Amino acid sequence: MKLGQVLDNYRDTCKIALADGTVVTGVAIGKRGEIGGELCFNTSMTGYQEIMTDPSYHGQIMMMTYPHIGNYGTADADMEALEPKIAGLVVRAFSYQYSNQMANASLDSFMRSHGVVGISNVDTRTLVRHIRAQGVMNAVISSTDLNDESLVEKARGWPSMEGLELASAVTTESAYNFSEGDGPRIAVFDFGVKLNILRSFAAKDCLVRVFPASTALSEILDWNPDGIFFSNGPGDPRSMPDSIETVREAMTLDIPLFGICLGHQLMSLAAGLEVYKMFVGHRGANHPVKNLKTSRVEVSTQNHGFAVDIDSVQPDVAEMTHVNLNDGSVEGLAFKTCRAFSVQYHPEASPGPHDSHYLFQQFLSEITSPGALVESWPSAVSAK
Amino acid sequence: MPKRTDIKKILLIGSGPIIIGQACEFDYSGSQASRSLRAEGYEVVLVNSNPATIMTDPVTADKIYLRDLTPESIKQIVAEEMPDAVLPTMGGQTALNLADQLHQEGYWAEKGIQVIGVDIDAIHITENRQQFRDLMESIGIDQARSSVAKSLLEAKEITQELGGLPVVIRPSFTLGGSGGGIVWEPDQFDRKVMRGLELSPVHEILVEECVFGWKEFELELLRDSNDNVIIICSIENVDPMGVHTGDSVTVVPAQTLTDKQFQVMRDAAIKMMRSIGTFAGGCNVQFAVDPATGRMIAIEINPRVSRSSALASKATGYPIAKVAARLAVGYTLDELPNDVTGTTSACFEPAIDYVVTKIPRFNFEKFEGVDEELTTQMKAVGEVMAIGRSFPESLQKAWQSLENGYAGLGADRDESPRGEVRDRLKKPYWDRTLQIRNAFKLGASVEEVADISKTDPWFLHQIQELVQVEAEIRMQSLERMESDFMRLIKRYGFSDKQIAYLVMEDVTEDRVRTKRLELGVKPSFQLVDTCAGEFPAQTPYFYSSYETSCESEVSEKEKVVILGSGPNRIGQGIEFDYSCVHGVLAAKEMGYETIMINCNPETVSTDFDVADKLYFEPVFWEKVQDVIEHEQPIGVIVQLGGQTALKLSRQIEAIGIPIIGTSAENMDLAEDRGRFSEILKELEIPFPPYGMATSVPQAVEAAERIGYPVLVRPSYVLGGQGMRIAINKEEVESCLIEIWKQMPDNSVLLDLFLEDGIELEVDAVRDGDEVWIAGIMQHIEPAGVHSGDSTAVLPPYSLSEVVLNSVRRYVIEIADRLDVIGLVNVQLVTKDEIVYVIEANPRASRTVPFVAKATGVPVANIATRVTLGQKIAEFRERGELESTLIGYAIKEPVFSWDKFPEVPKELGPEMKSTGEAIAFIDELTDEHFRRPYELRNLYLSR
Question: HSE on the CB side for B936, CA within 13 Å?
Answer without folding.
Answer: 19
